[in-house]
Amino acid sequence: MGIFDFLSKAIKPTEDLAEERSKAPESFWGKFSKIIAGKTTVDSDVLDRLEELLISSDVGVPTTIKIIGAIEQRIARDKYLTTNELNRVLRFEAEKLLHISPALEVGITHSAAQSHPHVILVVGVNGVGKTTTIGKLAAQFVAEGKKVMLGAADTFRAAAIEQLTIWGNRVGAVVVSKAMQADPSSVAHEAVQQGIRNGVHVIIIDTAGRLHTKVHLVNELAKVKRTIQKCLPGAPHEVLLVLDGTTGQNAFLQTEAFTAVVQVTGIVVTKLDGTSKGGMILGIVDQFSIPVTYIGIGEKAEDLIPFDAHTFIDVLFQKW
């Protein structure tokens, strides 16, 4: 059973995501309803206010322009558009952005059993929930009956090594670690070598939070990836970029920085259980052509669920 098959059986994404997103102060639908209140057809005022709403929801300017342009084309073709139709058209255009070409999904492995060991490199800046995400993934793999090994390659923070070790002990995954300030590449090398020798199914490697302003750390990340490739040709099989759903436009800058160094195959969006607007998901997928593979909606292991475009759009436009 693959990652997505397991999670789909274990979790009810629509109910869970709707419940957590409802904690936000006001839904996207609530704000959208105010825009069309008292209107019967879509005019320039409605489009201007919709544009402001999309941008304020962290969709991003380029993606907002694309959505508004599609609506304007529809109006030009049909001569007018009712406000009831606007809701349907907006949903259609938003969901269309999330269905990227299958050719772009080559790097996503739906079943870790296809390769032994299956190596996942997890990247992202400090504070986004990388280590917690790794722990949740490990827990779900272990629940599938797979042998899991974790590589603590974030050697710049003692707390990161400690946190990963706690997760490993909690879920039953072996943790490979070294002392603070040790070469991260050496940790990755040891984890992969041990994984090969011991017949491990899945190896998940943590990395230090790196910002685009820290050139030496960015270079270190590239070195970690090269080391993994030398140990096991074709690895890492997945590179997951973890983004905090509450950071808005900073998420775009982080994605740009990491994709310049490593080939990111999937994005994990965390902290969608608070006041996150989630609109950045539309913009990130559209502008970088990288699929969102998981979303985090809580602290428990089962709160990491596979991303489903249709479910996400349903929740975004839920009439609360």
TrEMBL record:
It is a peripheral membrane protein. PROSITE patterns: SRP54. It catalyses: GTP + H2O = GDP + phosphate + H(+). It comes from the Bacteria. Residues 291-304 form the SRP54-type proteins GTP-binding domain. GO terms for biological process: SRP-dependent cotranslational protein targeting to membrane. It is found in: Cell membrane; Cytoplasm. GO terms for cellular component: cytoplasm; plasma membrane. The keyword Heme does not apply. Keywords: Cell membrane, Cytoplasm, GTP-binding, Hydrolase, Membrane, Nucleotide-binding, Receptor. Its main location: membrane. Its EC number is 3.6.5.4. The keyword Oxidoreductase does not apply. GO terms for molecular function: GTP binding; GTPase activity; signal recognition particle binding. It holds the Pfam family SRP54_N. SUPFAM superfamilies: Domain of the SRP/SRP receptor G-proteins (SSF47364), P-loop containing nucleoside triphosphate hydrolases (SSF52540). GTP binds at residues 124-131, 206-210, 270-273. It is an enzyme of class 3 (hydrolase). Involved in targeting and insertion of nascent membrane proteins into the cytoplasmic membrane. Acts as a receptor for the complex formed by the signal recognition particle (SRP) and the ribosome-nascent chain (RNC). Part of the signal recognition particle protein translocation system, which is composed of SRP and FtsY. Belongs to the GTP-binding SRP family. FtsY subfamily. This is Signal recognition particle receptor FtsY. It comes from Candidatus Cardinium hertigii. The gene is ftsY.
